[in-house]
Amino acid sequence: MNAFFSAQGCYLAGALLALLVGGKRKAVGWVAFGAAAFGTLFILTAVLGVFREGPVSSGLPILQVPGLGAALIYQIDYLSALFLAIIAVVSLLVTLYAQRFMQIAHYRAGSLRYFYSILLFFFAAVLNVVVVADLFFFFVFWEIMTLTSYLMVIFRQEERVRLRAGYKYFLITHIATIFLFIGGILLYRLSGSFSFSFLKMAMAEMQQSQPGLLHFVLGCFFLGFATKAGILPMGDWLPDAYPAAPAPASAAFAGSMTKLGIYGLVRVFCGLLPLSSHTQIWGLIIALFGAGSILVGTMTALVQEDAKRLLSFHVIGQMGYMFLAIGTGLYFLRTQPVIGMIGLGAGIFHLINHVSYKSCLFFNAGAVFYKTGTRDINKVGGLARVLPVTAATAIIASLSIAGIPPFSGFASKWLIYQAALRGGFSVPVFIILGLIAIFISAVTLASFVKFFGALFFGKYEDNGSKARVGDVPAAMRLPQIILAALCILFGLLPQLPLGWVYRSIAYLFPPGSMPAAASIYGGGLLNGLSLNVAGSTAAWNALLLTVIFGLCALLAWGLFRAGGARVRSVETWYCGEEMSDRDTRYRAHGFYLPFKQIFRLRIGRYERPGIYPTITWPKRLFRKEPALNRAIDLDRWLYQPLARSAVRLMRRFSATHSGVPHLYLLWLAAGAALALIILYSFSGGK
Amino acid sequence: MPSVILLLILPLFGAVLCALLPARHADKCAIGATGGMLLSLVWLLLARPGGNWQSLPLTWRWLQGSFREGLFGFLLDPLALLLLLVVVVLGFLVVLYATAYLGAGNREHADVTGKSRHHAWLLLFITAMIGVALSPNLLQLYLFWEMTTLCSWALISHYRNPESLRAGFKALLMTFSGGLFFALGLVLLYVHTGSFAFDAHSDLAPRMRLWVFLSFAVAAWAKSAQFPFFTWLPDAMAAPTTVSMYLHAAAMVKAGVFLMVRLALANPGLPWTAGLVVAVLAVVTMLVALWLFFFQDDLKKLLAYSTIAHLSYVFLGVGVAIMGSRLGAYAGAMHIMNHSVGKGLLFLSVGVLSYTAGTRRISELAGVARHSPLAAIAFMVGMLAILGVPPFSGFWSKFYLMVAALKLGGAAGWLLLIPFALEIAVAFAWFLHIGHKVFFGPASGHAAKAGALPGVMAAALIILMLLTLLAPWAAMQLMGAMGL
Amino acid sequence: MNSYLLAFVQILLVLLLAPLFEGVMRKLVALVHSRIGPPLHQPYLDLLKLLGKEELVTAPHPLFRYSAVLGLAAILTTAVLIPIGMLPPLESAGDILVFIYLITLAAVMVVISGVTSDSPYAAIGASREVMMLLTVEPVILIALISMAVKAGSTRFGEIMAWQAAHAPTFSTLIAGLTLFIAIVAQMARLPFDIVEADQEIMEGPFVEQSGPKLALFKWMIYAKQFIFAAVFISVFIPWPVVQPAILNLLLTLLKMAVLLLIVGVVHVVNPRLRIDQAVRFFLALVVIEIAGLALALVGS
To answer: What ipTM goes with this model?
Structure first.
């Protein structure tokens, strides 16, 4: 626990120091990186400690809120530890990357201190969210996380488009948070405390006594978490907000923030909710929303031409995969715990993979922006020549996200398909969801072929920036290489992350109630996955098949060289015509046109590329003053008439002020008489 | 004890000095008086045995006679201390700010002559508010209450143009008419119980309890600008920003809600109907104010409507407390403090716009952040505090309020919670929109030509920003001591 | 160890026999055209010739040069997962999903060779390849999953065993028919010869491929053809199962030859569809298949 507090101190100290260091581009970047490096070191120590010696808790509350039964208590269990590790690694890579990326002239030197400070505060908040064991403080840190991320979205506040994105983001997530509040408070009404352990009991009690209300509570939680995770339709903010933030921040969002939606979901739906019909119903709902996001998000990504916007829609799609997996897992946890655990594990495993490849892809997009100053994939091409490392990592990450074996994305998607299909044998709707997931996996591939094909291959074009020769600086290359290596490592050895994932989930349930890891995944780090569902097995042995693939490639290479063919460099052949490079470039826009034309939204005359509707807000809220205003304007119809009649009444009285002494005497006498009569009547005639 | 007396005497003395001495000494007198006031508050806090707030309340009675609580005197319990902290700390800051704000450098209202008048009335007002906070019974509260009304009239009319004269008169008329109901309640209470004590309601017959309480409530509604008496507050924005901030966001309007919280906490047995009336009216006010947000072009008026809505949060808390969820009253009390710092910060940053850019019209402002970063940061912090984004102040009391409303349970709880949640969401949307429009994006003409910001104004902003972080903590400690 | 040996044998089988089946098909096409046609071993000669030809390089990317190697390797790897008349040798390494995605990997290599070659024709071809992948892959997948639902397993071996032991049902018939059409597309035969479309975009992704690269790609296409034929026969027409295994293997090869002849006939008598027509066509197939899947789920 002390290691965690030290890490906390590192991030906060770094944030304050960054504010003080101020406008020196390099220095402030190194300060942030130093803070994150030390913080990561401490966090990883804490995580290793947890995985070795079991969960730890801060024991006594650090802070107490009077009257609410809320107290700041930290507890690091395996699930928290897993997320801590992810966030820490992401923070390290992001600050390392940002150190060089933020040096481009696009960002004012004076504003960098704010950026780094906010970034570190953001990481501090995110770290707190996953370890706090009290719902009230969970909300507090959750909102601080939202606030800091919003500030990063509007970081270049001079541009209206970023402001709009930040506005949408902050507003939607804030409303979602209100729902979270309501859900939490409703539970609190039963428990009298916001501590997770009490809420767990309250949920069990509510499940018995008020099942209807529990559905409402779960609905609130689902809304709150799904919104943060970018699940459609609530996640509409995501494709605007991600591109608006600077590339390191986008990577940080993809690597940590949206993932916390999953964390919250697992924490509440697995950690607090007892296994019951509620888990089944909400499992199905979560899976349905997940499949919807997969479909709409990824199909929309296919028509995007802004690199980061394309990636953002894929975030939605990939979050959909996680939701589908977790929903499936929840649904079957009660009836077929093996499928349940496969689903849950697949969801978290996919999350880990998504962090690695999606952060990597955002880094790739950032590297392209760094070199060429644009994110429009129509305007650049052939960049593999100047950015070889970026291109290589982009291809690895793309193949991983598209679920191509043997990369990590395939391993987790394979588990998701297995859970959905196996579950579908008994509950057919899951087969359909699984088919959607499989189909969209191909769409993802298509989208990323466009992405890396247009950016890195084809004729060289760099948006007129005359990109300097040589790849991006080492500080930007290294994070990409590390993430790409993780994509390969987790793909080849899925048992390694799955071991952590299994422990983190199984700990949420009563000990012994879930099947052992070896009986689900098959044992052995090198043996690959061998699922065993109800006596029938399914296997994916990445290592073995990769070795065979390697041998086959060797064989094919042998054939390739066998003829001893000479190699000659030639110009591209345009059927004999002389063409300029610009004219012959096949732009990203042209990819899949027929397909895109078939899958587009058409309602009457309203037509959109893709199936994603956009809402345009009215410029002015009201064209003319509504009638309600006149009704509310109490001055007009109540107070002013009242005041006017009062004034008229006064005038009437002032008419008596005539200046004639006799009349005054008369008034005096009349008044005195009246007074006497009144006094007399009150004294009761005595 | 001497510290309490010093607290009351110093601003009064300062007011007299400001009025009598030549104008060039006004700033020094005012700073000295409020600074001394602040120090004596610190002294008061430190002099408590052990320095903790658990040992409150401190009472002192004068002209005890047949009265339990004394005819006059002091009552320093945590609730009083809460208002006292707001009044004194913000009073010092606003005077600090006013020394620069009122002057030839102000682009909207260059004002060279009125400074000593402003300071004198403001200090007198501070005295009155301290009196309100420390009152041990309703009678003394009433006296100081009307004193604040009077000061309010003078301060609103500070610029002496027809608009401000009219607004001042309107405010005086409406709050004073409300005050008549206070007097009515006072008389009824005294006639039936022979006491002016806060908890005397409990001695009334249940039927009478409702009517007496409601007559106090009418006074509070008028003072705190609730529906249907809210119309004076937006007009009162004709006052200098310092006055708007202090009287119409931080202190004076808080007197009404303070009275209600006092009564709700002192009298556990208030009728349920009274609670319902208060809560429903609070919700109505909230929605009316919310609706009127959309039609404001003057930043200060927008803030005024927001103040109205936030005061109704407190009323909502009080109503909920009377209806059975006592947490509501504590939440309301906390919101007094949390809202004061947040809204104070907002007003002061709008004041910075008036001062440096010469306008506070939303349509004329854009991209202020580039040229006046401090004002932008201050406004954003204040806005987040008001909108209830942790870790800033507003969140904490809003959360308590939501808990209180939901704890009430049943149809009533939901009927109150849903509009409340709606208000939170829509107000969030609108304020964020305005914040973006005014402070971010490409700079407008006014914003680009903004002048420099005087150091004292900047200092006041920075201190208030820190206070938005500290206030909820202090409020929770105080309410914890109050029995939360 | 035995299974590894079998795997090796199966890889070699695919590598060496695939061109022969291509030769058979060319002969058939020629017969329908009333030509004499090339000899059966002509594909071997083509490949040998190409392997020794000069390799022309238009783009410097290593992926452009070696995508053919990786593509062929991906297809050969699938050989260890599929049944060819006998149980798949390395069934414990992957199931139908792994198979589908290895095939996809090969398609990705074609696409990469297209987009890296700098030629606009290749880029169009790559775009079409991806679109075909998008629409054909679900068809194959749903067909196989219908069978998996029937068999209660996603492993080729168990699906094959189930089918061999049961009479055909409505759902398996639907799955078989749709899979057949999908296979025609996967083999890049008319009416779905859209990716290469040599009259329109000059072999599409392969326009800049030459020498050994082109040889490997051609070999990859032959192997893919062979593998899909094997999968189709093993999964949908496993009867009659004869002993010993070697006999069954020969029988399967015979059935595959017949299947490829039918594909050849389809190829000859059809014109080429436009890509959008193909996409719509396969979408319709998906709908039919889903109905078949529903039938499989209710047990008919």
So the answer is: 0.93
